[in-house]
Amino acid sequence: MFGDFVLFLEAIQNQCLMSFIKTITSKPFLTHLAIVLGSGLLLIVLAFVAINLYTLHGEGHSVPDFTGLTEQQLSHLAEQKQLRYAIIDSVHIDDMPRGVVVEQEPHAGELVKRNRNIFLTINAWSPEKVQVPNLVDYSIRNARVMLESFGLTVGDLIFVPSEYTNLVLGQHLNGKPVQPGTQVVKGTRIDLLVGQGLSSQMTAVPNLKGLSLEDAKEESQRVSLNIGAAIYDSTVVTGPDTLAAFVWRQSPAASPGNQLNLGASIDIWLTTDSALIMPDSLASDPSEWDNEQTETEEEKFY
Q1: What letter does residue 139 receive in the DSSP assignment?
Q2: Which of 199, 227, 242 is at the close of a domain?
Q3: Under 8 Å CB-to-CB from 114, ≥6 apart: which residues?
């Protein structure tokens, strides 16, 4: 009796299997299956087409070069190219105009979609400011190094009576004391009050001929002197001329035994004409030659 039941179940199983095979191989089933698969494939294709149309796949605008342009200049260019922009940062670069773009992302020439944001970094409109360090109780040399590390420069050395020689006793800006931590424009000159010692100490006058203005200042300060008047002749017209100019005459001259009190000033005359620096062997009397040139050059001063 149990065997008959097993045979009955096998018969039902075989009948169901045959019915399933007959159903999935029937024409109506295959037709509906093809419709479903075709519809699904069509939907996928339509979705890709719609995405490409919406995102303009394969199309884009070449990013223009915004570097060197101000915001007012680049806004018209961005609008023309159907792009947007955002200024995200600013830096301080001394040899570039204020407010111009120095960096952009994406870079120039890259393809982007319309209305894409271009992120810009500009050269700051306001000059960079730094803090004035505390220079009191430092030597002149150490004070100079510290000022340069902060982006500042040494101004005049003002020597005052003190038992300490060449020690910084105070720091001034525009003739007034300046406190450590004060914010000033980078490159500002800080005057130093320096101890002269209890005696009237003297120092030899250095030879500044052939040096640029900055080198002449550094050489003078090295021996605790200052540069007084800096007079340019008619050969110095433009900014580059000023940078290229060199000392051709100084007063007092760097003669043997010629000395000045600490903190005294040396007046210098600058030019770009190398012919004005004449070797001593070509001059019958160098002091007379300097005197002869004085009247001529004073007519060229401006």
Answers
A1: B
A2: 199
A3: 56, 61, 82, 83
Q: Let me know: does 196 contact 236? Beta carbons within 8 Å.
A: no
Domain count, the chain: 4
Please say if the pLDDT value at position 296 is more than 50: no
User: Residue 40, SS3?
Assistant: helix
pLDDT tens per residue across span 173-232: 998 999 999 999 998 999 999 987 755 678 899 999 999 999 999 899 888 888 888 999
Q: Within this chain, do residues 230 and 277 fall inside the same structural domain, yes or no? A: yes
Look up tokens 């301080």; give the residue. 92
pLDDT band for 115, please (50, 70, 90 cuts).
Answer: confident
The residues with which 194 forms a beta bridge, in sequence order, are 159, 168
**What amino acid occupies position 120?**
L
Q: What is the CATH number of the domain that holds 119?
A: 3.30.10.20
For the cut 80, the answer to whether the pLDDT of residue 291 exceeds it is no
β-sheet bridge partners, residue 120 = 87, 104
Torsion on CA atoms 21, 26, 32, 33, rounded to nearest 10: 40
182, burial (CB in 10 Å: exposed 0-12, middle 13-18, buried 19+): middle
> d(Cα 283, Cα 269) in Å, to the nearest integer?
19
In terms of domains, do 107 and 169 share one?
no
Same domain? 37 vs 106: no
**Domain range holding 31?**
2-55
pLDDT digits over 234-251, tens only?
Answer: 999 998 999 999 999 999
The tokens for 161 are 């009576």
Residues 176 and 135 in one domain: yes
Do 230 and 297 fall within a single domain?
Answer: yes
